[in-house]
């Protein structure tokens, strides 16, 4: 038990503490002042708005990935796909679609875009036709020349739209009307006013009239070229399953060839280049030589199919002469094809009854001529090297070799025919030309039986 007596301190304790404290080292005043500085509380810097947004975005990014592990990648993929599609659309618009309309005034171009939409995307002949008519009306009101490339091109596009919709007869009507207008312009029957509805006033002076006349002079070659193309297109439509009128098809092809030959004669008499425009380097005007030859050979092909060789051969010879003059010492495969076609036509003509004083001799002459033309086709083909030489050249060589074999067989030269048929088969196998292989096999079997 504790009592007040037991809690008293001894009297000697204060003196003892005093002695011990006095022996402790003293702290310097300067150090003491330093250690006795008041304690300062730390200051907090406030975040800026940008830092707050950054922290918020980081937090949101972590949260959105955690909460949407499937939906977010799908959304990002969709956004990337949409961006790629819109970029591609913009690229196509800028590089392909836009240049088609830059020659037209903006109001006309807008109407044409509508027409093309109802032609290429959502085929609707009534809406497309209405839009094309609107484009033509606006163009004429704005002063576009009625026989400019743009206006004539719109009319041809109308026919293409109708054909695409299966309205072949309506397309033929449009093309026939357009061809008639062009021929009236070419023959000088549709001149006087430079632009429909826009007369050249006297006060405008001679310069304006001279400018229009020069433009129409240049346009003559261009629209005449389009007239030839229209005739060939009419022949195609008349021969189609929709119409099936071979007489009109042939008449259209004949008209195309007559236009070509008539223009050739006019240009030669004026000293102008046979192919091209008014100048030697103008390739955008009149037909080039290859296009003229194509028109001639198309009609020749029709006559060949009819076994009307006496009409087919002159057309092919004329086309061959044009190509030979144009190509000179650098022939192309087009000459090889024509040479072989001439040989085939002569061989076919030799099989038909011949009206001559000595039919047998005339037939032998035709066979000899056919053999020479077929051999010439092979000789010309041997001079043509890649990249000019193509598959057409190789298949023509097969046909020419086969024709030589057939001529030898017809003249009773069995061994020569067998050799040539074998060469034709070997060439066909090397080219992967199955039709040539089958024809050569059939000919060889025929020789074996005989």
What does this 3D model show about the protein?
GO terms for molecular function: misfolded protein binding. It comes from Aspergillus transmontanensis. Keywords: Membrane, Transmembrane, Transmembrane helix. InterPro entries: Mrg3-like, TPR-like_helical_dom_sf. This is TPR domain protein. The protein has 17 helices and no strands. It has 450 residues and is an all-alpha fold. Among the domains are: 29 residues; 42 residues; 124 residues, Serine Threonine Protein Phosphatase 5, Tetratricopeptide repeat (Alpha Horseshoe). Helix 9 packs antiparallel against helix 10. The longest helix has 35 residues. The N terminus is likely disordered.
Biggest β-sheet, characterized? Answer: none
The poorly predicted ranges are 1-9, 31-37, 192-203, 277-283
User: What is the fold-level CATH name, i.e. the topology of one domain?
Assistant: Serine Threonine Protein Phosphatase 5, Tetratricopeptide repeat
Give helix % range.
over 70%
Number of helical segments with 4 or more residues? 17
Gyration radius over CA:
46 Å
Element order: H for helix, E for strand: HHHHHHHHHHHHHHHHH
Count of strand segments: 0
Question: Which CATH architecture of one domain is right?
Answer: Alpha Horseshoe
Shape: extended
How far the N terminus sits from the C terminus, by CA atoms, comes to 154 Å
Tell me the fraction of residues in β-strands, as a range. Answer: under 5%
The CATH class of one domain is Mainly Alpha
Structural class: mainly alpha
Output mean pLDDT: 83
GO molecular function: misfolded protein binding
Protein name: TPR domain protein
GO biological process, one term: protein quality control for misfolded or incompletely synthesized proteins
InterPro entries: Mrg3-like, TPR-like_helical_dom_sf
